[in-house]
Amino acid sequence: MSYEPTPGLPHVDATTPPVLSLPGPIPRARVPELCDDVGTLLERTGARAVVCDVTRLGPPGLWTVNLLARLQLAARRAGGRVRLRDPDPSLRALLDLVGLRFEVEGETEEGEPAPGVEEEVEPGEAAC
Predict the structure, then answer these.
(1) Averaged in consecutive runs of 10 residues, what is the pLDDT profile of the chain (128 residues)?
(2) C-alpha closest to that of 73 among 22, 34, 20, 15
(3) Is the pTM above the cut of 0.85?
(4) How far apart are CA 38 and CA 11, in angstroms?
């Protein structure tokens, strides 16, 4: 059984953030296309975030920081944000060094308790 591939980006369920895989190294000429893809994914799915899989992006450097900053800017313009999947510890350190903050998949967001943690209650009261 065969089928005709549909042009453009595949349909993604809005309950699951769309994933954009970034195989490295990425040529400079491809950056505008990736930025357009981020915006399109957010608009088509109605999701609030795009997960960028940076596992195969390669060794981190200023080029990687520039790429991720541009993708984040494109996502913000479309009303969303970028979340990183499996960033290398050295990439996270470099992003912190230059002052760029990215959500990382699997981490709790600021202000939210970690999974499985109950709120503190007064002595003698039952936990919710």
Answers:
(1) 56 70 89 95 92 91 93 96 94 94 78 56 61
(2) 34
(3) no
(4) 14
